[in-house]
Automatic annotation (TrEMBL):
Keywords: Signal
Coiled coil: none
Taxonomic source organism: marine sediment metagenome
Any one Pfam family match given in the protein's UniProt record, by short name: FG-GAP_3
Protein name: VCBS repeat-containing protein
Xref: Gene3D superfamilies: Integrin alpha, N-terminal
């Protein structure tokens, strides 16, 4: 909060949870409610699109009140603009994209389980995803065995490990006691403001799905009175089994 000559931290009082900020990668400050007060939208990894309504003294989270589908993703970026030219603020949301081996859905999400699986006093984070209806660990036997040595004892050969699901490798108690984060969409998306704090989420076109969209900027670049959008992205740090996510050479969309 700006108190004139100093800034005062009011994170807790404003109604923004600290764990939201830990995962957040993108923020948009704009008046989506149309009441003249600046509202807040946060996006990030393993998070839904989170909406906070400015009521004056506090920010009230209304994420579950806007009839949007469950939107947990690996969100990277956000930008705002009146993209449908109806007088209110809409949003574009950058995600991992659909050009990727893992393709989560609400029924078959990508997951990460965090627990001290080998009882050595530190957390082990195990990611998983679905293949033909079964939930498998992302990591191959060598990687998982180096993190949790008991895996090598239980599975002495690659063949014995090959078809093991998450629930085969770990007990129900271990999984239930784990910190569980999930993502059910990797699609970069358009968040349309329908008014009255209601929103509709839809996929952006194919050209916006080729790689992660890490940054976006909206402006009227061709001076025709309509908002245009620049998208930038790619990611070179993925595991060898997935390859570099480098199919985006930059995208310019005319409004």
């Amino acid at each position: 909060r700006n108190d004139g000559d100093i800034f005062t931290e009011v994170t807790k009082d404003a109604g923004i949870l600290s764990n939201v900020l830990n995962f957040g990668l993108g923020i948009a400050v704009s008046d989506f409610s149309g009441d003249g007060l600046a509202d807040l939208i946060l996006v990030g990894e393993w998070m839904p699109v989170r909406l906070f309504l400015n009521s004056g003294p506090t920010l009230e989270e209304i994420t579950g009140q806007n009839w949007m589908p469950d939107s947990r993703g690996w969100w990277k970026s956000i930008c705002s603009g009146d993209f449908d030219q109806d007088g209110d603020t809409d949003y574009l949301l950058g995600n991992l994209g659909l050009n990727f081996q893992i393709k989560p859905t609400p029924e078959e999400p990508a997951s990460i389980y965090a627990n001290d699986f080998d009882n050595n006093g530190s957390l082990d984070a195990i990611m998983s995803y679905f293949i033909r209806g079964k939930n498998y660990p992302i990591y191959p036997k060598d990687d998982l065995g180096s993190q949790i040595p008991d895996i090598n004892r239980r599975y002495p050969s690659y063949g014995s490990f090959a078809d093991q699901t998450i629930s085969d490798i770990f007990s129900e108690k271990e999984l239930n006691n784990s910190l569980l984060l999930q993502a059910n969409t990797f699609s970069s998306s358009y968040l349309e403001n329908l008014g009255n704090n209601q929103f509709e989420l839809s996929d952006l076109p194919f050209s916006a799905q080729l790689s992660p969209v890490n940054s976006m900027r909206s402006d009227d670049y061709n001076n025709d009175g309509h908002p245009d959008v620049l998208l930038a992205g790619n990611f070179y740090g993925s595991r060898i089994q997935f390859g570099r996510l480098d199919a985006n050479k930059g995208t310019f969309a005319y409004g």
